[in-house]
Design brief:
membrane, seven-stranded parallel sheet, alpha/beta, oxidoreductase, 11 helices, Rossmann fold
Length: about 350
């Protein structure tokens, strides 16, 4: 009996210590989450994983949508690492500008960067474009499906032609190019296909009905494809889901009519910098992260809420969505209400 009396306080002390450790751990993780700009897996890879400078140097990376925004910044950061690049978009003059800038920022030579104009809508050309890359470099190590357009319009005001264009460009164009590149990667046993989706590929958002549908389609396609190629351990299929990022995507967005430009994009300075977004992407690629959630708060919180508590997500989204529509009608950036000051890297 005395022995038991002596053990009880000791057991209680150990229990208290474990509880304190668990509490401190929970507080630390919560604090990290408040200031986080990516999911915990990606942040771990960024801090403790393999570095892009070691993993991507010398690789051949094909970037679509490389003439602006995330694609352009990807080209610059990859060039500084020493990656060999294929730059694709519709505007050849802009691709040449990006190439000159890449050469100026790196030790790459002319032959290390291939400018390859590409129209994702012209799917019959994708086989020949892929062959041109293989002829020039002999291999494709990474395909970054970044090309596409966003949307800013209400469903009831949007023509069906806009929905068709979004699916043709964002979804079918991406699938078409992937189907040309993937057999080469499987043949050589290694390769990465990564696709820029969106927070709208996981959650719904007003003003983005067609864009969100195209990104949901990409999520479903690549989640299924990842399982199909599971027998090839050297092949990585990854998706990137950014929240709002400073780029030209809003200015170039579809509106309610096919050829009608957006009248006013609003101030974009409150959004994540393109440089920070791309650095996170490269760390994810270097560590074969299958899905990357990237965004400042409250968007990062939305990812987790939509993933784990969808009923709460519907409630919150319905409230914030009304403000988003009000901003749009007032000529502001749709996401401006979620921020109080510009974001810095």
């Amino acid at each position: 009996m005395c022995e038991l009396d002596g053990l009880l306080p000791m057991d209680m002390s150990i229990g208290c210590i474990l509880l304190m450790v668990a509490t401190v751990y929970a507080v630390v993780q919560m604090s990290r989450f408040i200031f986080a700009d990516a999911d915990f897996t990606l942040l771990w890879a960024t801090s403790f994983g393999k570095k892009p400078e070691a993993q991507l140097k010398g690789r051949v990376v094909w970037i679509t949508g490389a003439s602006s925004g995330i694609g352009e910044e990807l080209a610059y950061q990859l060039a500084q690492i020493g990656t060999q690049l294929v730059l694709s978009a519709r505007r050849e003059n802009e691709l040449e500008r990006v190439k000159r800038e890449c050469l100026g920022r790196s030790r790459l030579h002319e032959e290390n960067i291939l400018v390859l104009p590409l129209d994702l809508l012209d799917r019959k050309t994708h086989e020949a474009k892929t062959a041109a890359v293989l002829e020039h470099f002999g291999k494709i190590d990474v395909l970054i499906n970044n090309g596409g357009r966003s949307q800013r319009s209400l469903c009831l005001e949007t023509n069906m032609e806009v929905y068709e264009a979004l699916m043709e460009l964002n979804f079918l164009g991406t699938v078409s190019l992937t189907k040309q590149v993937l057999p080469h990667m499987i043949q050589k046993g290694t390769g990465t296909v990564t696709t820029v989706s969106s927070v709208a590929g996981i959650a719904g958002a007003p003003l983005l009905t067609g864009y969100s549908a195209s990104k949901h389609a990409l999520q479903g396609f690549f989640n299924s494809l990842r399982i199909e190629v599971a027998d090839y351990p050297g092949i990585t299929i990854s998706t990137i889901c950014p929240g709002p990022v400073q780029s030209q995507i809003v200015q170039n967005a579809f509106t309610e009519k096919l050829n009608k430009p957006l009248s006013q994009a609003g101030d974009q300075q409150h959004k994540m910098t393109t440089a920070r977004c791309v650095r996170l992407i490269l760390c994810g690629l270097a560590n074969h992260v299958k899905e990357m959630w990237i965004g400042h708060q409250p968007f990062l919180l939305f990812f987790y809420v939509w993933q784990y508590t969808p009923t709460l997500a519907w409630f919150v989204t319905s409230i914030l969505g009304k403000k988003r529509i009000q901003n749009f009608k007032a000529g502001l950036d749709a996401d401006a209400a979620y921020f109080t000051k510009p974001k810095v890297p």
